[in-house]
């Protein structure tokens, strides 16, 4: 896997590495951060290692979000490689409300456009309107809502689906 590195005014976006396990644990063990993510909070560093191996390592469009001054991950931004091009982000709560998720997302969107990805989609639980605000801030448009029995947490959620088309097909909806 190539070692893409993207820099913004405040951030470095790079691949996750095994040496990031402690930072991965800090991010994905926090109950509040994980409230609206599709997995349970990590319980220990062993779970962080499994999470790294299954969900972060070797993914083409999965980036650790790091502050420029220390290169330690404080978040994650990713886009799936399947036809949904599902886009998502997570950030440690002490970095919320600072524009970091938007700044990191804009940088990854620039790469996706350059790579010829035609669009991205993203969903958020309607009970998490701040995530929808980030989606709108980065140019995504609301398309529709749907209810789903959310797994593995196994409760009903109404998701709001957003999309951003890069290829000029303004009316396409995934």
Give your account of this protein's structure.
Helix content is 26%, strand content 30%. The protein contains 4 helices and 8 strands. It has helices at 21-29, 45-56, 100-114, 129-137; strands at residues 5-7, 11-14, 62-67, 73-79, 87-91, 119-125, 141-150, 155-165. The strands form 2 sheets. Strands 1-2-3-4-5 form a 5-stranded antiparallel sheet, sandwiched between helices. Strands 6-8-7 form a 3-stranded antiparallel sheet, covered by helices on one side. Helix 1 (21-29) packs across helix 2. The mean pLDDT is 95.
- Give the rounded overall mean pLDDT: 95
Radius of gyration: 16 Å
Biggest sheet strand order reads 1-2-3-4-5
Q: What overall form do the CA principal axes indicate?
A: globular
Distance between the termini: 28 Å
| Helix content class | 25-40%
As residue ranges, the low-confidence spans are: none
**What oligomeric arrangement do these chains adopt?**
single chain
Main sheet, how many strands, which sense, barrel? 5 strands, antiparallel
